[in-house]
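Hi, here's the filled form for the chain we discussed.

Project: internal
Contact: R.S.
Residues: 568
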Amino acid sequence: MALMVSPLAENLFQRALAQSAPSVSVPVENGEADAHKVLLRLLVNDGTAADETAAKAHLESMSNAEIEAYLRSKTPEGLFAGYDQFGWGILIFPSNFADGTVLATGGFDTFGTATYVNKVPLMIGNTKEETKIFLFMDSSFLGKDELYQTVASHSSNLWIANGSHDAARKLTAMEDQPDVYVYEFDWGAYQEDGQSPIPEPYDLKIGSAHSLDIPFFFGNEVFNPYMTDWVFTEKNRPGRIELSDAMMAYVAQFSSTGNPNVPESDLPEWQPWSNAEGAPKLMLLDADENQARISMSTMELTLKGVMDAMKTNVSEPMYSEVLRYLLSFVMTSYMLADMDIEPPAPLPSVEPTPEPTKSPQPSNLPDVGTTWTHNVSYGDETTVWTVSVTGGEVIDGVDCYITEASFDAPPQRLMYSDITGSDLSFTITQEKSWIDRTAKQPLKNEVSIYLPSYSWPMDTLTSFAYDGTYGQPLSVGQTWTYEQVSVSVPSVGPKMVSTWTAEVVGMEEVTVPAGTFNCYKVVHASKDATRADWVSADEPMLTAVKVVSEGYWTGTETRELASYSVPN
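And the returned structure, exactly as it came back:
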């Protein structure tokens, strides 16, 4: 879309295909103000200035050359820290500056005046539930499915109204603008019967989210390594392949001729957008599990119409909750900037919470400073993990001691290897556990990881709920079950729940760097993973002598006790 209003791109292309392109351009002043804000934040982040006031004074004393040198000295991570972010490392900043050079003065408003330079046939469209990919990363929506769907529906409709429908209306009104072909990609969203071809819970959480149309246009069955496994199944393959074949045929014909309709084809006729009331507007691209569902629609959205419908159909207090999100989400806030929107109802006042009574410290904990070192091997990697007792806490009435791990080198793990051969790895940066003092089993675990592919940090919070007599003291034949519940922040999916069984299968003598031990062998198993622990029967080690894990990620991890020490 930006190329259509860029004087620098004049006569450089003959057709345009715009996917999920918001028609939002901003003044240069917005970019300058945002860059200024980022600079102030960087100066505070690295300690150059104590606060924003000091940063402003310091910045005023810097020359342009000094500012350039300062910015070039930053690592990518340091520079990114100056920006607000969505999940998956997406930075928030203004773009599409109507500077009169790269983009025409007036930006996308020139669509309504015929002063834009590149008048070419245009195919433009959106996915039906664009914003779900962003809501999916927002942990504040966990457990709020009705709010999630309501926000997704109205924020996505605003994007569609601005991104494709408003642009199509303006362009079609210009006499010298060639045809505009509009689509809405609906695959994955709930259909008229309330069903989606995507399995639970991703039918709700992802639906027809932003970017999901891309693999259909290119015929790819592997794209984002997470979403491939979440939404593409053998059961929905017949329908999605038929839809993908149709979409590729349309776009190939459009690229060749400027008209998507394939001669002598069984595909439905794709009519260009018409501004006549009740006339065909856009092509709906959808499929159930078995076949494509492609048809023209007279649907037309406007920003005002979307907001009026929300006012009519969404009651308080949810209306104000949704509106607060629309006004804070960077994409929709730009779209609503020129509208006279009545502000949302104020948040209800909350009485100050009294200072909580601290949990009593459990008795007979391992002393703070008790330390174990483990040699940990994974593939070709060997690292030393040092685990120390750092304190104690009572959780739900259970006495726990807290351990924290450090590493001689950041452990790397392979999370995914898709059929193209590309790998998605992550780095473990921190691990903290709350251990039941009596049973020597974890009640809570917190792992921090870093995904370099996305410049994306993530915390996984895991809790354990046990059934039966679990953990120590152990005896051969002893069994128990437990539920493991994991939530990631930022969210990359819904709450993950897995059920495990544990059994003390026998006694074995095990030799590790710390010595030779007579051990109970405890096997833990879930649907996807297994773990074997060798726990010393001769002395209370408070940790397993050896652990072999499979299925937590690609490959096998082995931990062996190298040493342990108790503070004097």
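Let me know if anything looks off before we file it.
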